[in-house]
């Protein structure tokens, strides 16, 4: 599942629209819609989105030996 889909699913689970999420993080619904189409977000943007969804964001690589980076 890509990041845009995860954000949409999280919004649905929290009972808010993508437009409401945009307002909560201080951007326009149009900007958020465009970002979701492209699927590129900075770490800072993901942190704001997570906070607005009362969630946490975890970004890491798991190496073949189980090490998380």
Residue ranges: pLDDT <50 for 5 or more in a row? none
- Overall structural class, as computed from helix and strand content, comes to mainly alpha
**Fraction of residues in H or I helices:** 55-70%
Largest sheet: none
Global outline = elongated
Distance between the termini: 20 Å
What is the overall pLDDT average? Answer: 94
Question: How many individual helices?
Answer: 4
Written as H for each helix and E for each strand, in order along the chain, the element string is HHHH
Topology (elements, then pairings):
Layout: H1 3-14, H2 18-24, H3 29-38, H4 43-52
Helix pairs in contact: 1-3, 2-3
Structure overview:
The chain is an all-alpha fold and 69 residues long. It is 57% helix and 0% strand. It contains four helices and no strands.
């Amino acid at each position: 599942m890509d990041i845009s889909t995860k954000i949409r699913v999280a919004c649905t689970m929290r009972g808010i629209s993508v437009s409401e999420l945009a307002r909560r993080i201080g951007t326009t619904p149009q900007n958020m819609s465009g970002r979701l189409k492209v699927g590129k977000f900075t770490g800072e943007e993901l942190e704001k989105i997570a906070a607005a969804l009362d969630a946490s964001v975890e970004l890491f690589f798991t190496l073949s030996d189980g090490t998380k980076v």
